[in-house]
Amino acid sequence: MSTHSTIAIVGAGEAGTAAALALRERGWEESVVLIGNESSLPYERPPLSKAVLVDETRPGPKTIVTSERLSELKIDYRHGCEVVSIDRTASMVILSNGAKIGYHRLLLATGARPRDLNVPIAEGSRVATLRSYEDATRLRELIGQGCEMAVIGGGFIGLEVAASSILRGASVIVFEAGSRILSRAVPVGIAELIRAKHERSGVRIETTAVVERIELCEGRSCVVLAGGQRHLADLVIVGVGATPNVELAQAAGLAVDNGIALDEMLATSDPRVFAAGDCCSFPHRLYGKRIRLEAWRNAQRQGVIAAANMVGEDRPYDDLPWFWSDQYDETLQMVGLCCGGEIPVVRSLGPRGQLLFSLVDGGRLVAACGFGSLGAVAKEIRVAETIIRRELKVEAEALANPALNLKQLL
Amino acid sequence: MTKQAEWVAACAADALRPEEVRRLDHGGRTFVIVRSPEGDYFAMDGHCSHEKVHLADGIVDGGIIECPKHFGTFDYRTGESRALPACVDLQSYEVKIENGIVMVKV
Ligand SMILES: Cc1cc2nc3c(=O)[nH]c(=O)nc-3n(C[C@H](O)[C@H](O)[C@H](O)COP(=O)(O)OP(=O)(O)OC[C@H]3O[C@@H](n4cnc5c(N)ncnc54)[C@H](O)[C@@H]3O)c2cc1C
After folding, report:
1. Cα nearest neighbour of B82 on chain A
2. Which one of A65, A331, A382 has the shortest CB-CB distance to B59?
3. Which residues form the Rieske domain (chain B) (predicted)?
4. Out of A51, A182, A290, B74, which residue is the most buried by the measure of CB atoms under 10 Å away?
5. Given phi > 0 = left and psi -120 to 50 = alpha, else beta, which region is B28?
């Protein structure tokens, strides 16, 4: 064993924290230092666009671990500390306060940040993004009754903020540059259901609406579209995707390819440095290509696998992409990945929702997506996950037939 | 003030197959009953301790019940949390079979 027997983790989000806990579970007894630039205990982000905006009394951050548990496990949590550089020759990370921490293995779990809209934004206009608990509490104060909001981007975060704001009595218009909402991740059939749900709830959705700039008009923000159309709002929320935080890795000379580039063991181009979560890209055995996910379960499970591999296990990461989103009282779950050209097969769950399966030629299931009540959707998606993982061939007719229990296809 | 515990009828004992779960709502609370492969019955709180989600909609396998929403898991025999994001144990309750009915002391 090296003289530096510390495992250092940069970023105390979902992935970094899961890794720290997993190191202890796997019997790593030497030091674990978890370094995060936020001040609170590690917390979950998904509630930020949901409960934190909607609940009657403001919820605190939903912490992943208690401080008692951290000290019990002797995880040295350095909160409010920014890592400013990595010295790979000396095997240490350098913090903004000048402190240096040596490492035997290093995990980069730096997450992602809201992508810039990249259009001129007038000074003084009220434009917000959402990533941290602080962002969410600020937003929460602004979205009350009568607030006129414009959401730029018809992706998950934009739409969840739209739903939450409507529930709080705001009025909301969504501008999506593409020809439909959720075009990056969700098959068109399900995206249509979600759109209908929003429109019934009072959200206006404008597609092929390319925002050109945001101006300030008499104290309000004015969203100007490519066609010249202008829309006044009290508040503009930008939700146009996320940019992985790769700068630290890049400056240290690690390979970057749409995220910190990893192998299937989640090691970077330096075998002593690993990464996990929203900041990384990795090859996936089932999809034959490098992917980057912005998803909670992936961050957590990559944290666990990276931890295992840092202590000498040899476990390729091959968990399936899985995502959920809450829209009003309904939920969306997706498993697997569509790469284009799949055949969609719809199964109706009646008033409880709908499932959409994506098959490739030859009848292999590669992805499944469901929208509706959690009780109706979750079990089916769970079975679909097993079908996808086992690379089973299934008949489209069987998938479409609501009378047939999916489990019979296993 | 804590209410005195009472025995509540959940379902017929043979209505549950091994590792099948049943939801029981009573007095504004919710519980789950699971039958183990050995034929014993167990009861615990019905909402996941991570978020208020009905565990009865989840999958039961190998002594474990999994939350359908975020995959937190619990030992259904004891209510102990086993996997993140669940990190708080659930309360378990005494169970008896009376006249072929699963009774839970809640
Ligand atoms: C509003 C919102 C809603 C979401 N909803 C869902 C959902 O419904 N379903 C779903 O599947 N996913 C959802 N996600 C995505 C999910 O939260 C992320 O995928 C997950 O948080 C990624 O975890 P991570 O650990 O990779 O990154 P993060 O959770 O972002 O953690 C990274 C941490 O590292 C810190 N950091 C970065 N650089 C440094 C440095 N140099 N030094 C120290 N610290 C540093 C960051 O500040 C941050 O605290 C949502 C995300 C957001 C923002």
Report:
1. A25
2. A382
3. 8-104
4. B74
5. left
Through-space distance between the first and last CA atoms of chain B, rounded to whole angstroms: 15
- Written out in words, the top-level CATH class of the domain with range B7-105 is mainly beta
* pLDDT of A350 higher than 50: yes
- Residue A267 CA to its chain's centroid (Å): 21
Around ligand 1, the residues with Cβ closer than 6 Å are: A 10-16, 35-38, 45-46, 48-49, 82-83, 109-112, 130-131, 157, 245, 248, 277-279, 294-297, 299, 323-325
Could you tell me if A212 lies within 8 Å of chain B, comparing CB atoms? no
State the architecture of A116-240 in CATH terms. 3-Layer(bba) Sandwich (3.50)
Do the chains contact at B69 and A18, CB–CB below 8 Å? no
CA distances from B47 to A256, A297, B26 (A): 42, 20, 13
**Does A2 have pLDDT greater than 70?**
no
Structure tokens given for A256? 């970057």
- Burial class of residue B18, CB neighbours in 10 A (0-12, 13-18, 19+): exposed
Whether the per-residue pLDDT at A255 is higher than 80: the answer is: yes
Query: How many contacts does A have with B, using Cβ atoms within 8 A?
Result: 35
Residue B73 pairs with which residues in a beta bridge? Answer: B66, B83
Residue A188: predicted pLDDT: 93
Q: Would the pLDDT of A193 be above 90?
A: yes
What percent of chain A is predicted at pLDDT more than 90?
95
List the residue whose alpha carbon is closest to atom 45 of ligand 1: A11
Asked whether residue B55 carries a pLDDT value surpassing 70, the answer given is yes
Q: Sketch the domain layout of chain A as residue ranges.
A: 6-113+243-310, 116-240, 329-409
CA A131 to ligand 1: nearest atom: 53
Domain boundaries, chain B: 7-105
| Lookup result for tokens 């169970």 | B95
- Kindly indicate the confidence band of residue A185, based on its pLDDT and cuts at 50, 70 and 90: confident
pTM recorded for the entire structure: 0.94
The yes-or-no answer to whether A6-113+243-310 and A116-240 have a common fold is yes
**Topology classification of domain A329-409:** Enolase-like; domain 1 (3.30.390)
- CA distance, residue A57 to nearest chain B CA (Å): 16
* SS3 at position A381: helix
Q: Given the CA of residue A324, which atom of ligand 1 is nearest to it?
A: 9
B85:A44 CB<8 A: yes
The DSSP element (H or E) to which A248 belongs, if any, is helix A247-251
